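Suppose you are handed a protein chain with no further information: no name, no annotation, nothing but its sequence. What can you learn? This example shows the usual starting point.
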Amino acid sequence: MRKVALRAHFDGQQIRLDDPFELEPGTPLTVVVAGDGDAEHRDWSLLSGRGLEAAYGEDEPEYSLDMIKEPNPDYEGR
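A reasonable first move is to predict its three-dimensional structure. Written in structure tokens, the prediction is:
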């Protein structure tokens, strides 16, 4: 069976899928608990933001494409 992410919630007794999905009895599942207010996730986000703040100064100029001296031929302009 292909891997698929399904939204679900815990009703106090059972894990319930939020949308219908056909599952055979005995289908192996992996459950990942993803809380919205996860303190560790929040801490890592703050740390990442501080790293970006330290990398760019307040007087950092905006770099335009015409300032590129040697374009990367593998870059597709994403």
